[in-house]
């Protein structure tokens, strides 16, 4: 079924399940990352950006938007996601910008340091860091939540952005910008996302504290807090299987958001036009008004 509003698919969505981390190319319906719709207007001309999780979902939409706004872009992703990543790198280059992919696991501090150094070398600078990679696995009871999962969720969602932001400061100059992807889960946690919701609350506190540290250096730090968005994360165990067909249905707009619908928030926050905005969290949740 189609909704008049932008012709996006309405629930129910088809049942589907992929192993983590999943591929956007195997989702049904395929998410809209703005491939055919996003039009830039030079808002990030000359910028150099690193986007983690840039292969799919929200990160892919941000990569496409940034390139069409005139930024050169490095995306990071896991080796299993090369197929999705190749599509994004081609789209960045189609926009006339430099586009590179660097695969690797962000749970490893040494890799995070290497990623910053390599991104800086490929781009000849680094102005924008998008801390967007994330892990989300639904587990109904704390009794079934393993230490391994708890640790992996924190390493991916919390430690990685600490390491990346720290090493990025070695190469960033005044005017640079860091944006993290938090979640409405930081403010309205679901019972079955006990580990994930905590990490997203960490992301909000990290953003606000780091903004205070880095303001005197002329570096801004902001967060985007998505509500329900149609991405691989959700069909790889982020939601219980039985909830998937109605994902986002209880939002006032009655459906899940598509990644293309949130990329403009990252463009705006990264742009020099927002030079006095730092320490903020910008929510996009289909009208629930979580924050
Ligand atoms: P996604 O699956 O498309 O993106 C997540 C990406 O994280 C993956 O593509 C993968 O490349 C990366 N990743 C995961 N573990 C990694 C690791 N160990 N090392 C390197 N990369 C790793 O899904 P998405 O929904 O676009 O997720 C992007 C961000 O949005 C995440 O931080 C997520 O928590 C957040 N978010 C999503 C929703 C939603 O409804 N989709 C809602 C709120 C917040
Ligand atoms: Mg992916």
Automatic annotation (TrEMBL):
Cross-referenced Pfam families: adh_short_C2
Protein name as catalogued: SDR family oxidoreductase
Keyword tags: Oxidoreductase
Keyword Transcription: no
InterPro entries, sorted: NAD(P)-bd_dom_sf, SDR_fam
Domain of life from the UniProt record: Bacteria
Similarity comment: family membership: Belongs to the short-chain dehydrogenases/reductases (SDR) family.
Location of the region described as Disordered in the Swiss-Prot/TrEMBL record: 1-42
SUPFAM superfamilies: NAD(P)-binding Rossmann-fold domains
